[in-house]
Specification:
The protein has 691 residues and is α+β, with helices and mostly antiparallel strands. It is built from 22 helices and ten strands. The protein is extended and about 120 Å long.
Length: 691
């Protein structure tokens, strides 16, 4: 057999093996079905041996698979660190290059403005005026003198939360603001757009959005407390928008700084003093003179002179802590000093760097950045924003970052075949992330109690995200009530772990699941009623024979677990049960429904669960009552009465008592049902003759 198997193996493993020719030759050489069956058995034996060898090889190399997976994980971590380092180096190089080229650009722009000052501005103003005539509600925008158009174009706006298309807009970038106008569906003459929003260039930050399909050619505008995402026509247009927006913001900042310098250096014309009748004017003049003629602030230390440049270096090198330390040092130095003109100039220069630092920190916390590292990865940027006095913005960005991280983790969770296994993983991921976020939030915002309300609101929104994924897997997939009850129990147990940090979301979880739990209870109630009616239609009113003592013992254990402790008095000799199969099956299903319903019980579902139990019990009681009135055979009628007594004297009290013990409230509907369904009394021993 082994020689034949080895020859067959070599034949099948040969490189020029042709299955069709092999089958054709085999059918020609075989004498009948018996030869084909023997050959089939040989091939099957060979397949089993091959499968066994493959399994052994897998077990043999299992450790190598684990080590390879670990190496891949380590390599992935190192690649991520390398990518982060390269990103930082690129940012530093771009900052240095921009600093070197800024001087040349300023000189070129000054020469161009000197050559064509009036023509360029007039053309841009005429262009802006003609374009704003097409915007409904945009005529007053030109009231500001010196405002002209820099760039404009069509963009698509997307929802920040779910990245769904919102509307089509047209953006007008001016030298001091950004106008967003929406397209009108029904045009009226030359009017094509409708005024939507107007943002000052200093009130928002522009952030590039990484390209992950379908997020392509997008950029984000961050304004406290909101943000908007726009999509350009292509990558070239997006690049133009980002570059022109950045350059326009810088030009405006330069103009404002130059304007302040001119105001401080321009000598004021002498003004003839006026005689005032206000007796307090003399005191005010004295205060002003004292502030002007007070001791001059010493700004000669080298670290103050180099402070703006040092801040630029810290921002370029991403040394956020060093930048904030310098700002704290300056504030401490100027705390008790008089506010002179030189101090104002210095603060003006520093405020521009603070704005740049804030933009970088905001970008660090944006959800578009990598979400790896957990909540601790945001601690650096959050702590520096808090030190800068922007706790509200830091809180908002931190919570948005964590919401995106939780949502990404839930999306990446692979849906398993077993629902309970998936729910265990889902709860572990979500509640662990929530717990880590809460601890990190408490650490970062320990001195800002006003931010805690924002965290509570965020927790509710995160719980809503969790419940959506939970319900989709548990309730929308039509799982059994026992599985749904077990899944809800797992979620509640994880929810209780949050109480260790003073966060109780159990009520929130229950309130969000009420609708789905109610639907599941009513659906399962209908299933039990239909199954009971189907069994009732085939009722023969005969005693139940379980055939083996093991089956009888198993039934007794199931009844005891369901709360029916005296079930043994309904069992007879050998393996007989003095109840019908329909009543026993109904009792088991009824007690299971009761236990699963109590696991899902919340106060809002008190009436729903009671009415469902009542309806299910009523189906069985009505069936027994109908047979009592219609049955003519005295022996069978006595057996029906015996089953009715079991339902009334044993099942109904157990259900009522179990419900009241678990809920702590009286079950009035069940008590009324038991009082209104008293069966006639018959000696139970009269049923012993029924087989």
């Amino acid at each position: 057999m082994s020689d034949t198997g080895s020859r067959l193996r070599k034949q099948l493993e040969s490189s020029n093996f042709d299955p069709q020719n092999y089958v054709k030759q085999l059918s020609q050489l075989s004498d009948g079905d018996r030869d084909l069956q023997e050959h089939r058995q040989k091939i099957q034996t060979l397949a089993d041996e091959t499968a066994q060898n493959l399994k052994k090889n897998v077990y043999k190399n299992y450790r190598q698979f684990i080590e390879t997976a670990k190496e891949i994980s380590y390599l992935e971590s190192e690649m991520y660190q390398l990518s982060h380092i390269l990103t930082e180096q690129k940012s530093i190089m771009e900052s240095i290059t921009q600093a070197l080229l800024s001087a040349d650009k300023d000189e070129t722009s000054k020469e161009m403005l000197a050559a064509f000052p009036k023509e360029t501005e007039e053309v841009k103003q005429r262009t802006l005026t003609s374009l704003l005539e097409k915007v409904e509600g945009g005529k007053t925008i030109m009231d500001t003198p010196g405002r002209h158009l820099v760039y404009n174009g069509d963009l698509g706006e997307y929802d920040v939360e779910n990245m769904n298309p919102v509307q089509r807009v047209h953006a007008f970038l001016m030298n001091d603001c950004l106008l967003i106008a929406t397209w009108l569906p029904n045009r009226r003459g030359t009017v094509k757009y409708k005024y939507n929003a107007l943002y000052d260039l200093e009130s928002f930050a522009v952030v590039n959005v990484k390209e992950h399909l379908p997020m392509k050619d997008m950029f984000k505008i961050l304004m406290f407390p909101e943000s908007r995402i726009f999509q350009a026509e292509n990558s070239k247009v997006k690049k133009e928008w980002l570059e022109i927006l950045d350059q326009t913001k810088k030009n405006k900042a330069t103009r404002d700084e130059r304007k302040k310098e001119e105001e401080t250096t321009t000598p004021r014309s002498p003004v003839r003093p006026e005689v005032s009748t206000n007796p307090f004017d003399d005191e005010e003049d004295e205060d002003d003179a004292h502030a002007g003629s007070g001791e001059a602030v010493d700004l000669s230390p080298e670290w103050i002179q180099e402070l703006p440049e040092d801040l630029d270096v810290c921002i370029a090198q991403r040394d956020f802590e060093g930048a904030v330390d310098l700002l704290d040092k300056l504030n401490e130095y100027l705390r008790d000093q008089p506010v002179t003109q030189r101090v104002k100039e210095l603060r003006g220069k520093v405020e521009e760097r603070v704005r740049q630092l804030t933009e970088v920190l905001v970008f660090e916390l944006s959800p578009d950045r990598s979400l790896r590292g957990g909540p601790k990865a945001t601690r650096r940027a959050v702590s520096q924003l808090v030190r800068l006095g922007q706790s509200t913005k830091a809180c908002e960005l931190f919570l948005k970052n964590r919401a995106a991280a939780v949502q990404t983790a839930i999306r990446q969770l692979r849906i398993e075949g077993a629902t309970l296994l998936y729910i265990h993983k889902l709860c572990n991921i979500f509640f662990t992330s929530l717990l880590e976020t809460a601890k990190e939030f408490e650490m970062d915002f320990a001195g800002n109690t006003g931010c805690y309300s924002a965290f509570v609101v965020w927790s509710r929104s995160a719980m809503r995200m969790f419940v959506s994924a939970f319900s989709k897997q548990v309730f929308d997939s039509k799982e059994s009530l026992s599985t749904a009850a077990e899944c809800v129990k797992v979620a509640k147990e994880h929810c209780k772990q949050l109480s260790d940090i003073g966060l109780d979301l159990t009520f929130t979880l229950q309130s969000m699941l009420v609708k789905d739990v109610k639907t599941a209870l009513l659906s399962y109630k209908d299933v039990i009623i239909e199954a009971t009616k189907h069994r009732n239609s085939e009722e023969m009113w005969r005693r139940m024979n379980l055939m083996t003592p093991e089956a009888l013992a198993k039934l007794k254990e199931e009844m005891r677990a369901g709360g029916i402790g005296d079930f043994e008095r309904y069992t007879g000799d050998d393996c007989w049960v003095n109840l019908s199969y329909t009543v026993v099956a109904f009792t088991k299903q009824m007690m299971g429904f009761l236990e699963e319903g109590l696991k899902l019980y919340v106060a809002e579902l008190h009436t729903v669960l009671l009415e469902s139990l009542r309806e299910v019990l009523l189906v069985a009681l009505q069936h027994v009552d109908f047979n009592l009135r219609c049955e003519q055979d005295p022996d069978k009628k006595a057996f029906v009465v015996h089953n009715a007594a079991f339902l009334h004297d044993t099942v109904l009290p157990v259900v009522e008592l179990r419900f009241e013990e678990a809920v702590g409230k009286p079950a009035k509907q069940l008590r009324d049902l038991r009082k209104g369904s008293r069966p006639p009394r018959v000696n139970p021993e009269s049923t012993a003759s029924l087989v």
